[in-house]
């Protein structure tokens, strides 16, 4: 107790000369700090002390008049807090926050951002520079760095490390060079059965009815392959693969017709119709939309039904795989700009009315 008392008295005596030697401005500043702190405590008697912006402004202003080594004894907050208030005041003074507009380059329109993201997704091998060039061709001036910022915000990585094409995109690209074939049987009225060999182009979904016979043989099948090669002509050179099953009627001579055009034959596994799914699907469609609703009398009638449906399918029937376009249509029909104008609709019956082809006439009624 005695030692502690002597220590406190000694500290008080030593602090008296320091106070006397201190400048008057410093003492006045410390006095103002203490008075303001007293006012804060009187204002807020319950709960923790919370300083308002005016209190922070006052303490920060007085801190410039008091030596830093005295801040711990004078101010009710730590020096770091006081310096933070001072930086806030400087930022408010020199930050130009009262200006109306935002500084920097103008913002990019939302439609342009959506276009950048769409180009990146549709073309996974395009980098920022390539997308920038495509935008310039479309009339949008945008920097490569801005394109990178838009792609990064959308979660799309750089082109070299961006994910490759999806399975749908990959298989669609391979379908352009693939053709498939299969036999379809048709039951006649007299319970006899005839067979037709059909070919389906995967890329365009174009259907070819090569021939109809009651007795398909290996020689007949080879001749149908030759007829297809003559019918398709130069277009056959763009194909790369032929998909078929392991029917005994497909002989080496049949494969040789396509090998002469550099087309590789791919055989499906036994009892695996899904390996030739597109051809199986078109056979089912042919039955549901035509053959199941017609009494077929003979071989010639069967050929007429199949060829009529093939012409309708290739020229007018929409296909989901081609964005509702027929196989022979290069572009989708133009949308009607004026729905109030009365137009004449022409309906052409196919196969006696089993299906129809509807088209608007050029003139109006």
UniProtKB/TrEMBL annotation:
Domain Integrase catalytic: 161-334
UniProt cross-references to PROSITE patterns, sorted A to Z: INTEGRASE (PS50994)
GO MF entries: nucleic acid binding
Domain of life: Bacteria
GO biological process: DNA integration
UniProt xrefs under InterPro entries: Integrase_cat-core, RNaseH-like_sf, RNaseH_sf
Protein name, per record: Integrase
């Amino acid at each position: 107790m005695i030692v502690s008392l002597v220590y406190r008295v000694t500290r008080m005596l030593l602090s008296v000369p320091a106070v006397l030697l201190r400048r008057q401005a410093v003492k006045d500043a410390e006095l103002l700090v203490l008075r303001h702190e007293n006012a804060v405590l009187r204002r807020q008697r319950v709960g923790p002390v919370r300083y308002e912006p005016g209190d922070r402004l006052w303490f920060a202003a007085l801190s410039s008049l008091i030596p830093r080594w005295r801040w711990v004894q004078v101010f009710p907050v730590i020096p770091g807090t006081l310096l933070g208030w001072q930086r806030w005041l400087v930022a408010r003074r020199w930050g130009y926050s009262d200006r109306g507009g935002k500084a920097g380059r103008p913002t990019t329109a939302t439609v342009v951002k959506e276009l950048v993201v769409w180009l990146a997704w549709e073309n996974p091998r395009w980098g920022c520079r390539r997308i920038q060039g495509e935008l310039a061709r479309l009339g949008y001036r945008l920097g490569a760095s801005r394109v990178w910022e838009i792609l990064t915000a959308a979660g799309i990585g750089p082109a070299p490390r961006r994910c490759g094409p999806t399975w749908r995109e990959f298989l669609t690209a391979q379908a352009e060079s693939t053709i498939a074939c299969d036999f379809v049987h048709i039951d006649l009225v007299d319970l006899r059965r005839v067979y037709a060999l059909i070919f389906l182009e995967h890329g365009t979904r174009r259907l070819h009815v090569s021939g109809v016979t009651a007795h398909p043989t290996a020689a007949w099948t080879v001749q149908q392959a030759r007829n297809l090669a003559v019918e398709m002509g130069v277009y056959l050179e763009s194909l790369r693969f032929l998909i078929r099953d392991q029917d005994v009627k497909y002989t080496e001579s049949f494969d040789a017709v396509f090998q002469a055009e550099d087309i590789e034959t791919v055989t499906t596994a036994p009892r695996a119709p899904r390996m030739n799914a597109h051809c199986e699907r078109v056979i089912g469609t042919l039955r549901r939309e035509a053959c199941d609703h017609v009494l077929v009398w003979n071989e010639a009638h069967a050929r007429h039904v199949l060829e009529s449906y093939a012409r309708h399918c290739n020229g007018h029937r929409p296909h989901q795989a081609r964005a509702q376009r027929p196989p022979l249509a290069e572009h989708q029909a133009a949308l009607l700009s004026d729905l109030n104008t009365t137009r004449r609709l022409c309906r052409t019956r196919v196969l006696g009315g089993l299906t129809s082809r509807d088209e608007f006439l050029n003139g109006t009624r």
